[in-house]
Specification:
Elements: E1 2-8, H1 14-23, E2 27-29, H2 37-44, E3 53-57, H3 69-79, E4 83-89, H4 92-102, H5 114-124, H6 126-131, E5 134-137, H7 143-154, E6 164-171, E7 182-185, H8 206-213, H9 216-239, E8 243-250, H10 256-270, E9 274-279
Parallel strand pairs: 1-3, 1-4, 2-3, 4-5, 6-8, 6-9, 7-8
Length: 284
């Protein structure tokens, strides 16, 4: 028997994730008052029942009832030994954008600025996040990628301490990504842009990929970068980091950086990490 509590920031995608969990066999209920969780679990998992996996959505929409969650955290292990908490996260910028797109008010700021409600909620949920077994930042995922991430954790049992690595190609002439944790400059590599045949291609094209990767300097750079990432990532996992953005820049963001990002992402996936390759300026 397995009980999963799905919580986190409003607008981070709890309803969507509950649908994904339902697809892989969980019995799902959204907006469950926390005070009812022990009794619900007792009724659901009693002998002879046919429900093996339950996911409960819990968030601040229950207002004062949500406050029952905090004392429950202290006794959860005794009351429900086989439980886990999935905390869904997103940056203030992502949450604000989602609220503006849906034209909805934040539950904690029905008459104030949305960003103020997000701040109050983040402060309120700090203790819940600290107690979570899995933390997923949904701001870096398309829906299909988020579903893959949820399946990886709860269907394939491959969480890797919730670390997701985004490898992001960009062009320095378009500006450096502000959310970068690590930035590498590959403008020292031979540039396919100056070959008329490859000028209007991208690093996703085989001829450009082979041009970049066949260069001895590129091979040495990739080997050293892979060694660096293989060293760093386990330490980030140990430290509790759940999202790492590694940005790779070239001049325009279309050729060299794209090839390098694709190569590094493939390596990390082979190593079991959830690695997401993105190309910021490939169509600029």
């Amino acid at each position: 028997m397995e009980l999963l509590i799905v919580t986190g920031m409003s607008g981070a995608g709890k309803s969507t994730v509950l649908k994904f969990l339902e697809d892989i066999g969980y019995y799902c209920i959204d907006n469950m008052p926390p005070g009812l969780i022990p009794k619900f679990a007792e009724l659901t998992f009693r002998p002879g029942g046919d429900v093996e996996k339950v996911a409960l959505g819990v968030d601040i929409r229950s207002r004062r009832l949500f406050e029952d969650f905090f004392p429950l955290l202290d006794t959860m292990q005794d009351v429900l030994p086989n439980y886990s908490i999935l905390f869904l996260e997103a940056s203030d910028e992502v949450l604000l954008k989602r609220y503006k797109e849906t034209r909805r008010n934040h539950p904690l700021s029905p008459a104030d600025r949305i960003i103020e409600g997000i701040g109050r909620e983040r402060e309120m949920l700090a203790r819940v996040k600290a107690a979570a077994h899995h933390i997923v930042d949904t701001g870096h995922f398309l829906p299909r990628q988020l579903k893959e991430r949820i399946n990886m954790i709860f269907l394939e049992d491959r969480d890797f301490s919730s670390l997701s690595v985004t490898l992001l190609s960009f062009g320095f002439k378009h500006g450096m990504p502000h959310d970068s944790d690590i930035v590498l400059d590959v403008r020292f590599l031979a540039n396919p842009f100056y070959d008329p045949e490859m000028k209007h291609m991208t690093g996703n094209d085989a001829i450009v990929r082979d041009f970049v990767l066949d260069n001895p300097v590129a091979k040495e750079f990739l080997a050293k970068t892979i060694d660096l990432l293989d060293f760093l990532l386990p330490h980030y996992v140990e430290e509790g980091k759940n999202q790492l953005v590694v940005s790779i820049g070239c001049t325009g963001g279309k050729h060299r950086s794209v090839v390098v990002v694709n190569h590094l992402a493939a390596h990390l996936r082979q190593g079991g990490y959830f690695a997401n390759a993105k190309h910021k300026d490939i169509t600029a």
